[in-house]
Amino acid sequence: MRRIAPLAGVLALLLSAAAQAADPHLARNLAATCANCHGTDGRSAGGMAVLAGEPKDKLLASLKAFRSGDKPATIMHQISKGYTDEQLDLIAGYFAAIKPAGGAK
Amino acid sequence: MSQHTDFGRRGFIQGALGVSAMAALYGCAGAGKGKGHVVVVGGGFGGATAAKYISMWSNGGIKVTLVERNAAFVSCPISNLVLAGEKQLSDITIGYEGLAKYGIKVVQDEVLAVDADKRVIRLAKGGDLAYDRLVLSPGVDFMYDTLPGLNSAAAQQDILHAWKAGPQTVALRRQLEAMPDGGVYALTIPKAPYRCPPGPYERACMVAHYFKTKKPKSKVLVLDANEEIVSKKGLFTKVFNEQYKGIIEYRPQSELRDVDAKNRTAILEFDKVKADVLNVVPAQRAGDIAARSGLKLVNGRWVEIDWLTMGSTSTPNIHVLGDAIFPAPTMPKSGHMANQHAKLAAAAIVNLQAGLPPSDAPLVMNTCYSFVDAKNVIHVASVHAYDPATKLVQPVKGAGGVSAAPNELEGQFGLAWAKNIWADMLT
User: Fold this and answer.
1) Which fold has domain B2-142+286-358?
2) Crossing angle, helix B233-241 and helix B199-214, to 10 degrees?
3) Residue B225, Cβ neighbours under 10 Å: how many?
4) Residue B132: helix, strand or coil by DSSP?
5) Residue pLDDT, tens place only, B99-142
6) Nearest residue in A to B419, CA atom
7) Which of B 4-33 lie inside 8 A of A, CB atoms?
8) Any signal peptide, and if so, which residues (chain A) (predicted)?
């Protein structure tokens, strides 16, 4: 019986963590949908805007301006409409936390 | 999963808590990295991306082996510029050495068979390779059995598809170069779905661009099995009728029934069309290894998958990506989409190998740039989000769209897209 007590504690902790966030990697996964054009983790390989390390507020303002049509775009006005406010917030937060320089690790 | 075989004394709670809770405990102990061996078959837009992202997102915890038959990746996107003489094959060819820094083992070999029960694949040269999870990204193979006159190696050497970039791209370029001015290039398009919906129309434009600048008396004849242009219809129609007036002739509802290879003649239902260069894009299905491994297929052609994991609906521990799958509604078969499939699968596989459930809200998006000449480009874009009611990723209403008109700015973005997606999959 003594062995079960700590395991039950771990389990309770895990279950509460699971209740808080069904998918702890949601921001990373959503941001990865941008990487085809903007480079892995937003580190552009050239010719597209670098997203890595940009301030979250700036990224979010850009995305929302694309979505509203306030910021002229060739394609981002159409793509940004596919994401909810919450999703855009997660994406902007993810890229803001990435170091812009260095290898793709 | 192999990491669960060594429970030792912890095994006793497996029955009480269930396998997933036990696996969650294990995953926690392993810092949530995920473990095991994933074998990826096919190093294209889907497979190479999957290999990289599984390794990267598991922090190297999951061992990844990529099996690819070719020595280097050759991109289908941008290959129509090679046909037009605007790019060289070397511009669209990239080696796999960039994947080494992620700890990925790249094996150049051919997969002969999959044993899903034993979780082993058989290689032509390298013997047997065991996996915990298998990712198949084999692209398409051609249904030559529907075209008896083209169902031989000799005929296929003369009548090219160039729908897989590489030697065929170079060979078709040579045929176009050798064609005298005043000749006819005919391109046949199969019924949708096929790889790259706007690709044939881009090809018609790029060959017409080459003719207009170098062989102005020559013609492009598009024989389309579909009712109408499949992708970017308004934009391509305008380009055909204005920019390439007198060069491109577009014929819808012109399904190819057979080929007279010796006479370079396309045989339609009521007509025969002789060309100087005949370019046949045959009907397609999931690549051979996926089609013959016992996975459930839709219409006998495309692998049915679960959209939370890209897992086969019939066969555990096998995930399938890219052009080989039966797509969700309005989803194109494209390199960009294959790259997105790969990330969806990678996220799910890393979670599953750590004993965590896959994300319940996957999202994928597509962008496709088509060149109408050397500089001007048109795009189509879409976003697709998981819908629990249908268990499919569905197009997000109000999102996506096409270019207003061909433009040079998107010409630059089209090339930058290629550079970035190649880097996203291979470096």
Assistant:
1) FAD/NAD(P)-binding domain (3.50.50)
2) 20
3) 20
4) coil
5) 999 999 999 999 999 999 999 999 999 999 999 999 999 999 99
6) A45
7) 13, 17, 21, 24-25, 28
8) 1-21
Residues of B in contact with A78 (CB under 8 A): 381, 399-401
Condensed to tens digits (0 to 9), the pLDDT of residues B202-218 reads 999 999 999 999 999 99
CB B360 within 8 A of CB B386: yes
Chain A contact set for B25 (CB, 8 A): 7, 10-11, 14
Q: What is the mean pLDDT of residues A15-27?
A: 64
∠ CA(A54), CA(A56), CA(A58), 5° rounding? Answer: 75
pLDDT of B86 > 60? The answer is yes
Q: Tens of pLDDT along B152-184?
A: 999 999 999 999 999 999 999 999 999 999 999
- Confidence at residue B151, expressed as pLDDT on a 0 to 100 scale: 96
Residue B282, number of CB atoms within 10 A of its CB: 23
Residue A12 has pLDDT above 90, yes or no: no
pLDDT in tens, A23-54: 889 999 999 999 999 999 999 999 999 999 99
Written as one letter, the residue type at B156 is Q
The secondary structure of B373-421 as a DSSP string is SSS-EEEEEEEEEEETTTTEEEEPTT--EE-SS-BHHHHHHHHHHHHHH
Q: Spell out a b/e string for B332-367, using b for 16 or more CB atoms within 10 Å of the CB, else e.
A: bbbbbbbbbbbbbbbbbbbbbbbbbbbbebbbbbbb
B409 close contact with A: CB closer than 8 A: yes
At residue B216, the 3 state secondary structure works out as: coil
ipTM (interface predicted TM): 0.90
Upstream peptide bond of A72 is cis (omega within 30 degrees of 0)? no
What is the CATH code for A23-96? 1.10.760.10
List B residues 78-117 in contact with A (Cβ-Cβ < 8 A): 101
Mark yes or no for CB contact B420/A47 under 8 Å.
yes
Q: Where in the sequence of chain B do the CATH 3.50.50.60 domains occur?
A: 2-142+286-358, 144-284
The letter for the amino acid at B266 is A
Residues of B in contact with A75 (CB under 8 A): 367, 379, 381, 403, 410, 413
